[in-house]
Structures are given as C-alpha cells and as structure tokens.
Amino acid sequence: GRSRERAGRSRERAGRSRERAAFRLALIQLHVSAVKSDNLQRACGLVREASAKGAKLVALPECFNSPYGTQYFKEYAEKIPGESTQKLSAVAKECSIYLIGGSIPEEDGGKLYNTCTVFGPDGALLAKHRKVHLFDINVPGKIQFRESETLSPGNSFSMFDTPYCKVGLGICYDMRFAEMAQIYGQKGCQLLIYPGAFNMTTGPAHWELLQRGRAVDNQLYVATVSPARDEKASYVAWGHSTVVNPWGEVIAKAGAEETVVYTDIDLKKLAEIRQQIPILSQKRCDLYGVEMKK
Q1: Active site residue 131
Q2: Would residue 269 show up in a list of annotated catalytic residues for this protein?
Q3: Could you read off the pLDDT of 83-103 as tens digits, one per residue?
Q4: CATH number reported for the structural domain that contains residue 230 in this entry
C-alpha cells in the first residue's frame, strides 16, 4: 500500500514539474495613443484577456503609457509607485499573473529614466529595470534620435524568479549588447524579455536578427514586445513582437497592428538543446570571459 502511495506521489510530482516545464507567455502589442488614461485602460483590458486565455506571464511594450519621443518623456513621466505602476500592480494581482510592465518614462530625483517594472501574482514589485543603453543613433537620411537629450541610463542588470524559470530584462537598445544577454544566461535566466520599439529603418534590418542571435548564442528563449505601428506618430514603431526559441527559430510573431501574441515556452526543449550542443560547458574560460561588474 505504501509503495503504491509513494508511486502515486512521485507521479503527482512528475506531473507538477512537467506542468512547470511549460507555460504560456502573452505579448501585448498595444496601440499607444497620446491619452495616458486610454493607454492604461486598454493595456489592463488586454492583460485581463491574456490571463483569461491561460497566460501566466504577460508583457507590455516599451513606452506603453505615452507616445515615444524625447519631447514626450518629461510630460508623461511618473514616480514609481505612481498612477501607471499602481494599475499594473492591481491587474497583476487581480489576474494572479506575472506582469512585465513594458516601460514608462520614470521621474526620480530630477532625472528621467526609461523604466520597466515587473509585478508578481500578489501585486508585489519584483523588479525595476532602467534602460541601460540609451538610444543615440544617426543613420544619415533615415533616422536620428538621441534619448540622452532627456533620459539618464540605468546602471544595473534586472532579473526575477518565477515558478517556471528565471527571467532577464532589457529594454529595446539593450538587445544590441550581446554581453548583457550573456551575463543573464550565466546567471541562470532561461527567458529574456525586451520591451522595445525599433523603427522603420532598424526594424526590418535588425529586429529579428538580434533576437535570434541572442537566443542561439545563449541557448535561451527571447521575447520582444513592441507597440503597434502608428503611421501618424512622430516615431513610427516597427511592431512585429516576436518569440524565438533556444534553437534560434521564430515560434511566434505579430504583424504591425494591435494584437496579443501567445506562445508556450517549453523549458524541456531548452534543456534538450543545451544537452545536444553543450556550448555553455565548452566555453574556454581560460581564454576569454564576460563578467558582471556591478
């Protein structure tokens, strides 16, 4: 009788760990307007919809509560906690999910940051990532942009734990920096989430390429969440929120319009890929290394 009971218990445990080895992720490609209250209301509505469809982790896009542009950051900036993050905390708790709150312009001590907050199923703040690499670029004749005109950079890595896996955060331009993703991989992250708004020049050229590169180099899942494309906006986002698996395959991808992208993240597949091509244990740490300095 006891051994039957034990077998039943271990079957139950195996069932539980199998269930934890896969979970549903939802990316909300939100159409962002100039009216903050509308953006918040629609974002929370889509979070509820995603949760009703079984998503355990839900992510919003970069700058989801305000138009994207140096001329808007100051006007839309908030303290944290503040109006936007309080709503995110409440809806995460109501739906009992992990919510990656895209990013918002944050004001703190007279400085502005591009900041992503993460809330747990109890509504608690689990992580706050300030964009580390500021988007200062100049492609003559195509696009010029300087975030550093108004924003200050964050100075830390941001990770959080879930019952499924550890997650690493970056915002948009952070994705171009392979070292950051590598350190997240070293620290045990199996999923990286980048809320981001690439544009009509960099989007078609690099958006998917960068995600596939980060995923295959580190053998982990990469997800990006963009705002929907608005041709009338001063900064036109590329859209195409995407999920890439550790084999470098695109397993889910949006178009340009407002939508919610769902995908099941399979951590068993991640473990299999790492076993088949064991690059992480084959690195020559006697020859090279990438280290986290703070």
Answers
A1: yes
A2: no
A3: 999 999 999 999 999 999 999
A4: 3.60.110.10
